[in-house]
Amino acid sequence: MPPQRAFVGIDLGGTNMQIGVVDADMKVLGEAKKKTKPEEGVEGVLARIAEGVNEACAAAGVTTIAALGIGAPGVIDPEKGVVVEAVNLRWNDVPLAELLSKRLKTKVAVDNDVNVAVWGENKLGAGKNSNNLLGVWIGTGIGGGLVLNGRLHYGHWFSAGEIGHTVLFPFLPLGERTLENNASRTSVTERIVRLIRSNHKSKLTSELGDDPLKWTNEVKSKVIAKHYRGGEREDKLVVEVVDHVAEMVGVSVANAVTLLSLERIILGGGLTEATGKPFVDRVAEAARRVVFPRLAQGVDIVASRLEDRAGVIGAAMLAMDRK
Amino acid sequence: MPPQRAFVGIDLGGTNMQIGVVDADMKVLGEAKKKTKPEEGVEGVLARIAEGVNEACAAAGVTTIAALGIGAPGVIDPEKGVVVEAVNLRWNDVPLAELLSKRLKTKVAVDNDVNVAVWGENKLGAGKNSNNLLGVWIGTGIGGGLVLNGRLHYGHWFSAGEIGHTVLFPFLPLGERTLENNASRTSVTERIVRLIRSNHKSKLTSELGDDPLKWTNEVKSKVIAKHYRGGEREDKLVVEVVDHVAEMVGVSVANAVTLLSLERIILGGGLTEATGKPFVDRVAEAARRVVFPRLAQGVDIVASRLEDRAGVIGAAMLAMDRK
């Protein structure tokens, strides 16, 4: 049997990184997870990436890598492989492809983390057979990735797809105007905590610790899911807050569908995974209400299928494409 | 001297059509104008197009056409040359390229009217040297055309660029939600007339006829321009209404710039031509305030340069491209 060609895909987040070794059919052969620790600087992060790649290769029983792909959070120049700006990593103009390529002696492709996940979905997940789609990833922030005419679209400044930064409330002050400001998991948590602090009733209250200052750390995606529609302890207040977010996401994706004549919207990220079908259905309902009427019936609005592996698989696919 | 290659460009509107014969450098050699009269059906419109083409060719001293391009208002399938839906013409699934080609014995390219104008601007006007831009045409309605990676972008349903149908006020009723509902010339007229009827002071009042029911027909672009900033009889009420429209256009184009990472916005159409630089400057100011901050300084927001010839020239260019 000839030696198998192995590709590495990396999903680099501000807190954790996920590394996978896959074969040419994108079957996962081995995996590893590491802390990112951006506070230790670029060299520290690179060292942990290298460790993680070694661990994942060992787990996969692979000794040679054909190519490596990496999705990083921020604005990326994919041609040069440069991280132009990544707020969570505190990086500016880091030539990630060059640095990693030198260290790991393999070809490296770099792209935005959500672009990479959307590319994975487009080829192997919820985006199959669609050439015009937008992926919206709702987690601590809101990112997006655009596939137009069957290819990832970057735009003039490499920031295309950033639906989280479009504004819903132009006359609110800075920090409260955008979709991300109003519909990220972070904003859901803040709203729930604010309502509970101001004495609104919720089943969640009895589950929170004694220190109200720590509540925002306690209301994570899993806790939200438990109290959302269909959850173990469905709760009116949590349903109210999350349904409102679904409506705002619906309006924003509707405008993207109208402007770009999109065939499909894929929703992913931590909040979407946690809240599942009831959330996606509500986004779709809100979107259909306000989208350009002639597209309302045709457009698909669906959940990610690769879920938390979309990034790793998409990054590995990117590596294979660019090879 | 060898015979010159001549191209015909047609800007087909719901009320009028404009026809131009140009050479390969897009120099206009002859022109004609006709009423569209959509109420007389497809055959009637085709007959008037043919007459207009003959008149323009006679004016240009041209006997043979190399190719013809036509921009029509509505959703167009540019590959098949079919007008899928054109509300103003009352057309559905009209194979315009085929019908015109048979009648005029020449190759015919069809596209959306604003796409065609934006294509003209991209090649010869305010969009030169830009590969990622959106044109927004503000007239009786609001249309748009997108150039991405240097090519007109159509999307899955051929309706890409329709920024007029994106919503600004999702919780207002149908007919009051979209940019077009709130910022077309028609909506400016309705607002001004409503304010004057409800006794708001305006210099315009003294210029209106005796029948208040006819006022909406009287407040056209030229009248608005006369009373807007820098106009002959600048008027507080008109300035208020038009400035508000500029802000709404600014917010909408800002979201398009953020989502698509656009380099340039071109503003055209009757209302923009009438109100000029003060209007464009206000749109730009509003857009810069709410666009993804890292793009605020880079993006250009400019007025159309070809103005009412953009459609004819763009259509002729399209004919030449497709030939």
3D structure, described in words:
2 copies of one chain form a homodimer. Helices cover 40% and strands 21% of the residues of chain A. The longest helix of chain A is centred in the C-terminal third of the chain and has 25 residues, at 236-260. Chain A has helices at residues 41-60, 96-104, 113-124, 179-183, 185-197, 215-218, 221-227, 236-260, 270-290, 310-322, and strands at 7-12, 16-22, 28-35, 67-72, 75-77, 82-86, 91-94, 108-112, 133-138, 142-148, 151-152, 264-268, 300-303. The model of chain A has no long low-confidence stretch (mean pLDDT 96). In chain A, 55% of the residues are buried. Chain A contains 10 helices and 13 strands. Chain A has 323 residues and is α/β, with parallel strands linked by helices. At the A-B interface, β10, α8 and α9 of A face β10, α8 and α9 of B.
Give the assembly state of these chains: homodimer
Class of secondary structure makeup of chain A: alpha/beta
Strand coverage percent of chain A:
15-25%
Instruction: Work out the number of β strands of chain A.
Output: 13
Layout of secondary structure:
2 copies of one chain form a homodimer.
Chain A: E1 7-12, E2 16-22, E3 28-35, H1 41-60, E4 67-72, E5 75-77, E6 82-86, E7 91-94, H2 96-104, E8 108-112, H3 113-124, E9 133-138, E10 142-148, E11 151-152, H4 179-183, H5 185-197, H6 215-218, H7 221-227, H8 236-260, E12 264-268, H9 270-290, E13 300-303, H10 310-322
